[in-house]
Write a sequence for this structure.
């Protein structure tokens, strides 16, 4: 790779981010909607979640140092909150939702980085 992100970092990021970009986008929009909103805003969600969406839309060669930093933060957060094997596990709602906000659903199997 000729970007700011190594192949190892790319694969690790994609192994912990197990939600598709569509799933993450829908989740962030749902979380941002309130009962008074007719339609969720198109750029809804927390800053890190939006950054993860942007990274998922990029090719490896287009990633920047800022993207690499976000990728490391996401991997570190998920690894700190989960067992290393990332096998599906239930937890309380707030814990699961916080991880889903950054693209990791603890009830889904880990992503295959080769896919």
């Amino acid at each position: 790779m000729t970007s700011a992100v190594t192949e190892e970092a790319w694969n690790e990021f994609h192994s912990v981010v197990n939600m598709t970009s569509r799933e993450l986008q829908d989740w962030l929009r749902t979380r941002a909607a309130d009962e008074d909103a007719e339609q969720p805003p198109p750029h809804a969600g927390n800053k890190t979640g939006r950054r993860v969406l942007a990274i998922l839309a990029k090719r490896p060669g287009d990633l920047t140092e800022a993207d690499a930093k976000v990728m490391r933060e996401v991997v570190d957060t998920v690894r700190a909150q989960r067992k290393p094997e990332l096998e599906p596990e239930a937890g309380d709602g707030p814990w699961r939702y916080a991880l889903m906000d950054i693209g990791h659903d603890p009830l889904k199997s880990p992503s295959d980085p080769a896919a």
In short: The chain has five helices and no strands. The chain has a mean pLDDT of 83. Residues 65-81 form the longest helix (17 residues). The radius of gyration is 14 Å.
